[in-house]
Amino acid sequence: MGTPAFAVESLDTLVKNGYEIAAVVTSPDKPSGRGQKVNISAVKQYALDNKLPILQPVKLKDSDFIQALKDINANLFIVVAFRMLPEIVWNMPEFGTFNLHASLLPQYRGAAPINWAIINGETQTGVTSFFLQHEIDTGDILFNKSIAISPEDNAGTLHDKLMYLGAEVTLKTVKAIESNQISPQAQPLVPIIHAPKIFKEDGLLNFDDSVTHVHNKVRGLSPYPGAYTYLNEKILKVFETKGELNDEQKAIGTIETDQKTFIKIRCQDGWLYILTLQLEGKKKMNVQDFLKGNRL
Predict the structure, then answer these.
(1) What are the CA-CA distances from residue 175 to residues 5, 232, 263 (Å)?
(2) Which of 147, 178, 209 is the last residue of a domain?
(3) For residue 292, how far is the Cα from the chain centroid?
(4) Largest CA distance in the chain
(5) DSSP letter assigned to residue 174
(6) Domain of 172, in residue numbers
(7) Could you please report the per-residue DSSP string of 39-81?
(8) CATH number for the domain that contains residue 286
C-alpha cells in the first residue's frame, strides 16, 4: 500500500527478491493542471509495468474494497507512504500490517518527517518499520536504521537516501516476519518532536530569525514546495542559500546586491545569500541569471 515514488523502491525490492505481491493498493487517479490531465501514482505506474493487480479505493472502509482485500487473502500488508488505515484493514492479515516511516521513531511522527528534520537542523535521521495500531506512527518498532544528514542535504536529496534505506529495512522486516524472528519493541516514552503536514504558511521566511534557521527552512522545503518571501508583492521562492555569520550593525531585512553576482539579506545574526530562486510567473534560475533581468 503506497502512492509516491518513495514507496516504489520498497515494492521493487520485494518483487526482485521473489516475493509474491498479491495486490497493490494506491490512491485513485486524479486530474490536475490546466488541462485536467489524469495523473496516476508512481506506485500504480510500477504496478502496471509489472502486471501486478491494482486496487484504488476512494474510501478505505468501503465494503467492496474490504471484500476485495479479503478475497486476495494476503499474509501480510505493507504500508509505505499511504493513508491512515482503519482497523478493519490493518487487523486483517494473519501476520499483521507494518508501516515504513521516514524517521527514527518516536521522533518526527507525522506526514512530513523528512522536511521537519532538516528544518529543525537535525544531523541524523533514519527509517523505522513498525506494526500499525490505532494512534498514527505509535506502533511497536520492528527495525530501524539511521543515516547522517549532511549540511549539503535538502529535502530532495534526503528523500532519495531514505527511499533506498527504507527499501533495505522493508526487505529485512519481511524476511524477519517470514522466519518468525521478530521482537517488537514499544516506542520509548520521551518528549516527542512532531512532523505535521506542510502548509503554505510554513514556507514563509522570517528574516528576524537566525541565519542558520532561515537556511535550514530553505533546505527543508527544497525542491518542493519551496520556501518563499515576497518581492514587489510577488511570491519569490527560494531553493538554495548559504549563510554568513557576522555582527554587522544592519537592519534586519536589509537587501544588498552588486546587481550582477549576489543577493544577500540581513538576518538576526548574519547574511543569507540567495543562490537559486524563482519569481512568481517565471522560471527557476540561479541568482546571476535572475539579476540579468531584475534590478533590485
Answers:
(1) 23, 57, 52
(2) 178
(3) 34
(4) 70
(5) H
(6) 5-178
(7) E--HHHHHHHHTT--EE--SSTT-HHHHHHHHHHT-S-EEEES
(8) 3.10.25.10
- Shared-domain flag, residues 131 and 58: yes
Per-residue pLDDT of the chain (296 residues; tens, 9 = 90+): 999 999 999 999 999 999 999 999 999 998 877 777 889 999 999 999 999 999 999 999 999 999 999 999 999 999 999 999 999 999 999 999 999 999 999 999 999 999 999 999 999 999 999 999 999 999 999 999 999 999 999 999 999 999 999 999 999 999 999 999 999 999 999 999 999 999 999 999 999 999 999 999 999 999 999 999 999 999 999 999 999 999 999 999 999 999 999 999 999 999 999 999 999 999 999 999 999 998 88
What is the sign, positive or negative, of the torsion defined by CA atoms of 40, 41, 45, 50? negative
**CA dihedral for 175, 178, 179, 183, sign (positive or negative):** positive
128's grid cell: 523505522
- How many CB atoms sit inside 10 A of residue 231's CB? 15
Give the whole-angstrom CA distance, residue 131 versus residue 166. Answer: 15
Burial of 38 (0-12, 13-18, 19+ CB in 10 A): exposed
Same-domain check for residues 92 and 170: yes
